[in-house]
Amino acid sequence: MKARKLILIIADVVLLAVCILQGILSSRSGVKVFDISQEPDELIIEQPEIAFSIVKEGNDWFVGEEKYPANLSSVQNLVERVSSISALNKVGKANNEAALNRYEMNEGQKITVTVKSAGTVLRTLHIGKDSSTGTQGFVCFDNSNDIYLINDNLNLSFTKTPDDLRSKTIINFDKNQVSSVFVKTPADDEWGVFADDNGNWSIEGVDFELKDGAAADWAQKLCSLTTTKWYAKDAVLNGELTATIEIKAGKDTAILKLFTVHGAENDTYYGKCNLTPYPFEVASYAFKRFVIDPQDLAK
After folding, report:
1. CA-CA distance, 290 to 45, in Å (whole number)?
2. The predicted structure's pLDDT at residue 6
3. Which residues of the chain, if any, have pLDDT below 50?
């Protein structure tokens, strides 16, 4: 009987010890969520090589000193990721040199992101390296020396340049509102297609009849244009003007100048547009979509 009681007492002590240990481990490894209540309107990104800001004005975001229009989805993604961060556990102290080296939190290694709203600092993040899995990373919050393992790779997210975050859109019209497209070449050849109030399309500047639906189909394809590369405002590109194309859609008008740079093996293309002060690269497939032989629209 005494032996049985002794076994029960020992079992109770072991169970209590297990519960205490689980509680300690749970408190250490429990997820801590760092939220901010206000909506940010500015991110200051300081990388080892460059520093720049992303600022919201009205409903639009702009990046860098030049205030390039930003890619809204890319910026919104960054804002969401700094607004709510899940910290898995503490892994070290930022006042410990070994920890700074291990997690790449030293000056010249870390990325610092300052999050603001109406000029007030909401949060400062000191971002170290990512984890071995590539899905987590190491961060210090504000003025704290605690280094956390977080459930996000912010190092990858904020290793961006202003050019990475710029909008790549030149033209983005509603294709259902396009009403005319007129083309002029350096040889003063001019022709164009246009729709009346009933949506019936006509062509001028040529001596043939339109193929049914051809003008509307082509015009609607010109309501969208993006680039993969911007050039500086004063870039000398030495291209030959190929065509000037005016596109009207509702109250919007785009005047697009397309240039050809002749190469030994392949030609390359760039454009200029009244909707942006910056020249831009034009992919060959996009160039061929805009610059056509009007005979392609004939019956």
Report:
1. 38
2. 52
3. 1, 8, 11-28
